[in-house]
Write a structure and sequence with these properties.
By secondary structure, the protein is an alpha/beta fold. About 40% of the residues lie in helices and about 10% in strands. An eight-stranded mixed sheet has the order 3-4-2-1-5-6-7-8, with helices on both faces. Strands 11-10-9-12-13-14 form a six-stranded parallel sheet, sandwiched between helices. The radius of gyration is 24 Å and the shape is globular. It starts with 5 loop residues before the first helix and ends with a helix. The relative contact order is 0.11.
């Protein structure tokens, strides 16, 4: 666990921003993921551990060794490129065409590739087509999902798509390596005249410049630049959380198409101390327009001083939820108490929530627990790392149903940072947030009080909550429940594709 508290977190955000906003900052600097503090999620903060401590000989040696390892890994990647040189051009989109919208989304699994049902944009492409607007979809593939090809049309047979490669041509790979080595030395030189946290941040950023994360950001941006040059879109719409690749992609798209309108789509809930999405960098790295998933997040973004000059409009979300009315075939027993477990798409969070809910399941044998994975997570991979997941009690179910069906079966949901809890809550499920000691909250429902949404730290508290639920009158809870549901529905409102058509 990280030892960073909220005050240190805010200071860290400011110090990293100072590096990015410095007049000497470069695209290579912007490519360093580590400098973009996204949010207070523990998995993100692990890389910042020790940043507030003084430099020691041991730490210096570790950082030096890490630099060597990263250079070796890079040389390995380039060697692989040499051995597969015939495939190096596959990321180059060959067909020239003119489209209205270029969407940058994420390939989460094979079914998405084959069906064209996009997790983030849903039926947006078809709706635009109905309005005589053409779209093109570029898909990031961070999990290296095996798919049938890099280019083609989605399942609708109309919307073209392109799966981005995690490896570029040799000349591009060497160019990225040269640029980031140069940036690494620049940041190290800047650190000489600094002290304290500023010095530590620059030294760490110098090392992080040589990471594959920084290189991947350039790989994404280069491919987007190539696409923009080929298809000349009027708009580029990118999932927007403040990541380095988003910022760099805006800049490189503008370098070949200066009149392009860059749109960032805030698609997920915003946590209490979320940072990168709220701050402005140099103009070329900022979106021209921000679209939001709901009215609550729209107001929060509008309240940001840094974003005052950026128009913010409500688009809505495919995750908005109209109460699902299932047939009885979806519910084994109408009197069965069921708890839906919703981890984020992060391995460590899955292990944490599954271990916790497993203890709950053993204490509550009469209660069913449905484990529902994020689309990018494989249960097989999780169980290989955790033997306990290979021997589950009968009251734990691995979901192979739709989200709507899982929601229809459930009365409670245990969660931490997953945005899926918003959809569950909007249908009336009672949320149970697992809080850890000495941790900043990552609860997407942090603005709610603790009347309907409950906060627990132990399995015993879950047992008490679920067992005691029968003793609470519906009248006592109805108002609190309705307030919570209304709040959830304002976080994810139904999509209004006309918003995209009205963007100028």
């Amino acid at each position: 666990m990280t030892n960073i508290n909220s005050e240190q977190y805010k200071l860290l955000c400011k110090t990293c921003d100072d590096v990015l906003l410095d007049s000497s900052s470069t695209p290579e600097c912007v490519s360093i993921s580590w400098l973009h503090v996204i949010r207070e999620q523990p998995i993100y903060l692990k890389s910042y551990q020790g940043i507030f401590s003084s430099n020691s000989l041991t730490r210096t040696c570790k950082e030096f060794l890490l630099r060597i390892i990263r250079l070796v890994l890079w040389l390995k990647k380039i060697t692989i490129s040499l051995l597969t040189i015939k495939l190096d051009s596959k990321y180059k989109f060959q067909q020239e065409c003119q489209v209205d919208y270029l969407f940058v989304s994420h390939l989460l699994n094979n079914s998405q590739y084959d069906s064209g049902n996009d997790f983030y944009f849903s039926d947006t492409f078809g709706s635009l087509l109905d309005a005589n607007k053409t779209s093109f979809v570029a898909l990031l593939n961070p999990k290296n999902v095996v798919h049938s090809g890099n280019q083609g049309a989605f399942g609708d047979g109309i919307t073209p798509h392109f799966v981005m490669s995690n490896k570029l041509r040799l000349k591009d790979e060497f160019s990225i390596l040269y640029r980031l080595i140069k940036e690494s030395f620049r940041l190290r030189r800047l650190s000489i005249k600094k002290t304290g946290l500023s010095k530590n941040v620059l030294l760490k950023a110098s090392n992080e410049a040589l990471s594959q994360s920084s290189a991947n950001n350039f790989r994404i941006a280069i491919q987007i630049q190539s696409l923009v040059k080929k298809i000349r879109p009027k708009f580029i719409v990118v999932t927007h959380e403040g990541y380095a690749w988003e910022r760099l992609s805006f800049s490189m798209a503008r370098s070949v198409c200066p009149d392009i309108c860059c749109i960032g789509y805030q698609h997920a809930a915003i946590s209490r101390l979320q940072h990168a999405i709220f701050r402005s960098l140099a103009k070329e790295y900022n979106p021209d327009i921000i679209l939001t998933a709901g009215t609550v997040t729209k107001k929060r973004l509008e309240d940001s001083i840094d974003l005052k000059k950026i128009p913010i409009y409500l688009l809505g979300s495919p995750r908005s939820f109209v109460n699902f009315r299932p047939s009885n075939k979806f519910i084994d027993n109408l009197n069965q108490i069921t708890c839906l477990v919703l981890p984020e798409g992060i391995d460590s969070e899955c292990h944490l929530l599954f271990d916790f809910s497993l203890r709950c399941a053993l204490m509550l044998p009469g209660v069913k627990f449905i484990w529902r994975l994020h689309p990018i997570i494989s249960y097989r991979d999780l169980s290989r790392k955790n033997n306990k997941l290979q021997r589950l009690p009968e009251n734990i179910i691995l979901s192979n149903s739709s989200f709507e069906e899982d929601i229809a079966r459930s009365q409670f949901s245990i969660y931490r940072g997953s945005t899926a809890i918003i959809t569950a809550l909007s249908s009336g499920i009672q949320p149970i947030y697992l809080s850890l000691q000495n941790e900043m909250t990552i609860d997407p429902l942090f603005e709610l009080d603790n009347k309907w949404r409950k906060i627990v730290t132990t399995s015993e508290e879950v047992q008490k909550l679920i067992v005691g639920s029968d003793n609470l009158s519906s009248d006592h809870l109805r108002e609190d429940k309705n307030i919570a549901i209304g709040y959830a529905k304002s976080l994810f409102t139904p999509m209004n594709h006309k918003t995209l058509l009205d963007c100028k």
